[in-house]
Amino acid sequence: MKQSLTPAEAQGIIQDETPVLGPERVALSDALGRVLAESVAATRDLPPADNSAMDGYALRSSDVAGASAEQPTRLRVAFAVPAGSTPTQEVEAGTAARILTGAPIPAGADSVIRQEDTQLEGDDVLVKVASPPRDNVRDVGEDVRSGEVVLPAGRRVGPAEVGMLASLGRTVVTVHQRPRVAILSSGDELVEPDGDVAGGRIVSSNSYSIAAQCAEIGAEPVYIGIANDTREDIDRHFRAALRADVIVSSAGVSVGDRDYVRDVIEKLGCSLIFWGVKMKPGYPLAFGRFSGEAGPLVFGLPGNPVSAMMTFEQFVRPALRKMMGFPKWYRPVVRARLGETLTKKSGRLHFVRVTLERRGDEITAISTGNQSSGVLRSMTRAQGLLIFPADASEMSEGSEADVQVIDEAFFSSEKPAF
Amino acid sequence: MKQSLTPAEAQGIIQDETPVLGPERVALSDALGRVLAESVAATRDLPPADNSAMDGYALRSSDVAGASAEQPTRLRVAFAVPAGSTPTQEVEAGTAARILTGAPIPAGADSVIRQEDTQLEGDDVLVKVASPPRDNVRDVGEDVRSGEVVLPAGRRVGPAEVGMLASLGRTVVTVHQRPRVAILSSGDELVEPDGDVAGGRIVSSNSYSIAAQCAEIGAEPVYIGIANDTREDIDRHFRAALRADVIVSSAGVSVGDRDYVRDVIEKLGCSLIFWGVKMKPGYPLAFGRFSGEAGPLVFGLPGNPVSAMMTFEQFVRPALRKMMGFPKWYRPVVRARLGETLTKKSGRLHFVRVTLERRGDEITAISTGNQSSGVLRSMTRAQGLLIFPADASEMSEGSEADVQVIDEAFFSSEKPAF
Question: What architecture is the A51-138 domain classified under in CATH?
Answer without folding.
Answer: Beta Complex (2.170)
